[in-house]
Amino acid sequence: MYNRIKAVFEVYCSLKLKAGISRMKKFETENEESFQSKLKRITFNFFPAYRRTGGRICFISKNWQEVHIKLGLKWSTKNYVGSVFGGSIYAAVDPIYMVQLIQILGDNYIVWDKSAKINFRRPIKKTVFAQFLLTDELIQSVKDEVAEKQHMLLDLKVKFVDEQGLLYADISKTLYIADKKYYKEKNKGRKDT
């Protein structure tokens, strides 16, 4: 079944290339998508909670260290004054860093969103793009700090820009990252209310 899906997807991609619809990347990058990351991108875009944000993932690098998304003005994202609703702006970026880190760090880590702040620079009335980039150095520093302290808070930034690079919104996110054994031990006697 997997090979059949892969074959159909490869034919679909080759037809898109022949039709002039080339790259999904929205920013200059040396990274490439793999078949698995393309499949994750398509699946993520159809996941109802993300689909309803109005955002669409355009690119996921094969190592998950880079993700590109787009957000446009549509009937489903339009607010009362005719620009993109602030909730859509934030919701489109909300899960990305967390999912990236979960994919990169693996099963021995816990990753949670802790807090966020958004600065609206100008109304969005066209399609804008955001790039989520996690460097090798950042990932190694996260692993080192968690190995030393068992948990940490990580502050990351992302911004929405148009094709000319004009800034529309910038978002700061704080993520909690912990060693899975530490996290489970810490929360052993705790009950959710």
- Strand arrangement within the widest β-sheet reads 1-2-4
**Shape, please?**
globular
Domain tally = 1
Q: Examine the secondary-structure arrangement and name the CATH architecture.
A: Roll
Structural class: alpha+beta
How many strands?
A: 6
Average predicted local confidence, pLDDT: 88
What's the tally of helices?
7
What is the CATH level 1 assignment? Alpha Beta
SSE string: HHHEEHHEEHEEH
Intertermini distance: 43 Å
Q: State the CATH topology.
A: Thiol Ester Dehydrase, Chain A
Largest sheet: 3 strands, antiparallel
* Proportion of residues in β-strands: 25-35%
**Rg estimate, integer Å:** 18 Å
Helix content: 25-40%
What's the CATH H-level homologous superfamily?
Hotdog Thioesterase
Task: Describe the model.
The protein has 193 residues and is of the alpha+beta class. The chain has one domain: Hotdog Thioesterase (Thiol Ester Dehydrase, Chain A, Roll), CATH 3.10.129.10. Helix content is 37%, strand content 28%. The chain is built from seven helices and six strands, in the order αααββααββαββα. Strand 1 (55-60) and strand 2 (66-71) form a beta hairpin. The chain starts with a helix and ends in a 7-residue tail after the last helix.
